[in-house]
Specification:
This protein is α+β, with helices and mostly antiparallel strands. The protein has 2 domains: 106 residues, Ubiquitin-like (UB roll), CATH 3.10.20.30; 134 residues, Alpha-helical ferredoxin (Fumarate Reductase Iron-sulfur Protein, Chain B, domain 2, Orthogonal Bundle), CATH 1.10.1060. 31% of the residues lie in helices and 13% in strands. The chain has 8 helices and 7 strands. The strands form 2 sheets. It has a 5-stranded mixed β-sheet with strand order 2-1-5-3-4. Strands 6-7 form a two-stranded antiparallel ribbon. α5 crosses α8. The termini are far apart. The relative contact order is 0.12. Its cofactor is [4Fe-4S] cluster; [3Fe-4S] cluster; [2Fe-2S] cluster. Belongs to the succinate dehydrogenase/fumarate reductase iron-sulfur protein family.
Length: 253
C-alpha cells in the first residue's frame, strides 16, 4: 500500500549565507504522482527529521509549480533540474536535494540568482522602446525566423544551464548560456536588431563568447530543450561579422 511506503530525502541545509552546510534526512509518506515539491511541503507541515527531532522547516523557492517560472531549480540526485517536474517515483532513493552551487545560497535550497539577472541586464535582453508615441504597426517577423525565435523565448531564467556549465563558477565572469541565447533572440527581433551591434560587442568582451568551452552541458540540461549551443554558434558567426564591421568602421547592421 502506498500509505505504508516512505520516501527518504537527504537535504543539504544551510542556515544562512555565511553558515556551514550540513545534511539532514527526512521521511515522508508516499502518495501517487508525488513530486519533490510535494515532499518538501509535507516536511514543511511537520518539520521533524528522520530521527524524530523537531527542526526548522526547509526553505526553497517556488512559484508556478508547472515549469514556467523557473524558480524551483535545485540539484536533485546530482543533476540540476526543476523540482516541480521531478516525480518521486522516477527518482532513485534516498533522494538527495542540494542548492545550485553556481549561485550564492540564501538559506537551505534557496539561492540568489542575481548573477544571471545582472548578465541579462548587461546584454540588454529587452526591446528598448520608450514613450507613448503612435508609431503605427511594427515590422513583421518572417515566419521561418519566428518559429526558431519562439523556441529561444521559452527560457524561464531557471539557472539550470548555468549550473550545468563548467565555465560558470566563482573564478570566472562568464555570463553563461541563457544570456547569450537571449542576445540571439533579441537581435533577431525586427525592432531589437537596432541594438544588435551593442549586444554583440558586449558578448565579444571578457565574460562573453570567448569563455565558452563548448562542453554542451547546457543544451543537455535545459528543461525547455532550448537549442543553446546552436545560438552560441550563430553568435560566433555574428560576432565575427561585427568584428569586421568595427575594423572597417562600418555602422551598418
Amino acid at each position: 500500500m502506498s500509505e505504508d511506503k516512505k520516501i527518504r530525502l537527504i537535504v543539504t541545509r544551510q542556515e544562512g549565507p555565511d553558515k556551514e552546510p550540513f545534511e539532514e534526512e527526512f521521511e515522508v509518506t508516499h502518495r501517487p504522482n508525488m513530486n519533490v515539491i510535494s515532499a518538501l511541503m509535507e516536511i514543511r507541515r511537520n518539520p521533524v527529521n528522520k530521527n524524530g527531532k523537531a527542526t526548522n522547516p526547509i526553505i526553497w523557492d517556488m512559484n508556478c509549480l508547472e515549469e514556467v517560472c523557473g524558480a524551483c531549480s535545485m540539484v536533485i540526485n546530482g543533476k540540476p533540474r526543476q523540482s516541480c517536474t521531478a516525480l518521486v517515483d522516477q527518482l532513485e532513493q534516498p533522494i538527495r536535494l542540494e542548492p545550485m552551487k553556481t549561485f550564492p545560497v540564501i538559506r537551505d535550497l534557496m539561492v540568489d540568482r542575481s548573477r544571471m539577472f545582472d548578465s541579462l541586464k548587461k546584454v540588454k535582453a529587452w526591446i528598448p522602446i520608450d514613450g507613448t508615441y503612435d508609431l503605427g504597426p511594427g515590422p513583421r517577423m518572417a515566419e521561418n525566423k519566428r518559429q526558431w525565435a519562439y523556441e529561444l523565448s521559452k527560457c524561464m531564467t531557471c539557472g539550470v544551464c548555468l549550473e550545468a556549465c563548467p565555465n560558470v563558477n566563482e573564478r570566472s565572469n562568464f555570463i553563461g548560456p541563457a544570456p547569450l541565447s537571449q542576445v540571439r533572440l533579441f537581435n533577431a527581433h525586427p525592432t531589437g536588431e537596432m541594438n544588435s551591434a551593442e549586444r554583440l560587442e558586449t558578448i565579444m568582451g571578457d565574460g562573453g563568447l570567448g569563455n565558452c568551452s563548448n562542453s554542451q552541458n547546457c543544451v543537455q540540461s535545459c528543461p525547455k530543450g532550448i537549442p543553446l549551443t546552436t545560438s552560441i554558434a550563430a553568435l560566433n558567426r555574428s560576432s565575427t561579422v561585427q568584428s569586421f564591421k568595427n575594423f572597417f568602421g562600418s555602422d551598418k547592421q
